[in-house]
Design goal:
about 300 residues; alpha+beta; Glutaredoxin; 3 domains; 5-stranded mixed beta sheet; 5-stranded antiparallel beta sheet; about 25% helix; binds FE2/S2 (inorganic) cluster
Length: about 300
């Protein structure tokens, strides 16, 4: 395997905050996984320990240390999708691709995996392919989805399929629903949190669309100010264990019933979002801080 591009990838991200994650993202884009030798090269050239690099690589579900196909197909097997025949969809992908969940086709074109709830239960069964979400998938849609992936999902006519879909989140500590139907943003219930910064507290409403960055705050913050997010019901701080892939700041963690997690960057002006599939509950349940102890 040729690793000449690793030098260029590292130079492209030199000095950026959170550059390690960006470097790993580019390596994964290039090879469809993180080869061991590439990670060793990153350690040698950046001076970051291999242990720290592996820590990042294994924390994010988006990264894989095992070879993956050019196209990653994730079928939701959460309860709502399961009862709407998601197992039959997995079966159909298996029949058409000749691989089971967790396997990659011999030509390295496709990897098939199953995931827990993606937070869009009302639209299930949900299938995610190369970052694009297909809703209300039926067995008869499987061949069309495979063809779309082969022809380049970005260029395909997406019809009713979309990268954004309405999600529903709850507090990882008290389990209370965080969706606010009375304050819709972009036509869907918003995610309602309490926000604090520099001694100011107020409400914050975030778009409930998976890929949207729209937010409304009671007290607008200055650029790059660090925010803290709290559950408006139990008042626990919603802090996760990971940092933003774009700006390197800590991310708040909101639970999606079924096991996935929505991470939201705590830096005003960034507000990056990241949907982690298949459970990172430990990252959200070990970080409870009372509202009374922090601003
Ligand atoms: S169970 Fe599939 S999106 Fe919720």
């Amino acid at each position: 395997m040729n690793f000449e591009c690793i030098d260029t990838i590292i130079k492209n991200h030199h000095g950026e905050p959170g550059s390690m994650i960006s470097i790993l993202e580019d390596i994964q884009d290039r090879y469809h996984y993180l080869p061991k030798e590439a990670l060793r090269m990153v350690a040698r050239k950046t001076g970051i320990s291999l242990v720290d690099i592996y820590g990042v690589a294994t924390f994010y579900k988006a990264f894989s240390l095992q070879p993956r196909g050019k196209h990653l197909i994730s079928v939701c097997l959460g309860t709502a999708c399961h009862v709407r025949s998601a197992p039959a969809i997995v079966e159909e992908f298996t029949r058409q691709l000749g691989i089971g969940p967790g396997e990659t086709t011999e030509d390295k074109d496709f990897t098939l995996e199953t995931v827990n709830c993606l937070g869009a239960c009302a639209l299930g069964p949900i299938v995610k392919v190369d970052g694009c979400y297909f809703s209300n998938v039926k067995r008869s849609d499987v061949s069309r989805i495979i063809q779309k992936a082969k022809s380049g999902i970005e260029n395909a006519s997406m019809e009713s399929d979309s990268k954004d879909f309405p999600i529903s989140v709850c507090c990882p500590h008290c389990g209370h629903d965080l969706m606010d139907e009375k304050h819709p943003i972009e036509g869907y219930p918003s995610i309602s949190l309490e926000i604090s910064f520099n001694g100011t507290r107020g409400w914050g409403k975030f778009s409930g669309l998976s890929g949207s960055h729209l937010v409304e705050f009671e007290h607008p913050a200055s650029p790059e100010v660090q925010l803290k997010f709290y559950c408006p019901h139990c008042r626990a701080e919603l802090i996760g264990n990971s940092n933003c892939m774009d700006c390197g700041q800590p991310m708040a963690a909101l639970k999606i019933p079924g096991g996935s997690v929505l991470l939201v960057c705590s830096q005003w002006g960034c507000m990056n979002r990241f949907l982690c599939l298949n459970g990172m509950d430990s990252s959200v349940e070990t970080n409870t801080k009372s509202l009374s102890t922090g601003n």
